[in-house]
Amino acid sequence: MNIVRLLIALAFLAVGLVVGILNTETITLDFVFTEFNTSSGAAIIVSLLAGVCIGAAIVLATVAWPLYARLRKAGKLSAAPAPAATRGTTDVPPGTGV
Fold this sequence. Notes:
It is a single chain. This protein has a domain at 14-70. It is built from 2 helices and 2 strands. It has helices at 2-22, 40-79; strands at residues 26-30, 35-39. The protein has a two-stranded antiparallel sheet with strand order 1-2. The protein starts with a helix and ends in a 19-residue tail after the last helix.
């Protein structure tokens, strides 16, 4: 399994290197307070990485954390002792011979 992960990581690294090498045109990223001069390949890779990180954070906040909270709550409920039934508290009045 670790070999497969290593091969996948190397494949993505190779694709990133190819994108960076083939897109060498200089671009200027203009933000409100500053400007960055970079290659278009680096800008593409950074924007893809930022998109993956933002998407992962959204999935984590909307799916993983609520499921984890429900799992913790279910674990606490199953660990709580069940209420014990008390003896002698039936609906039959005493002295009826039942």
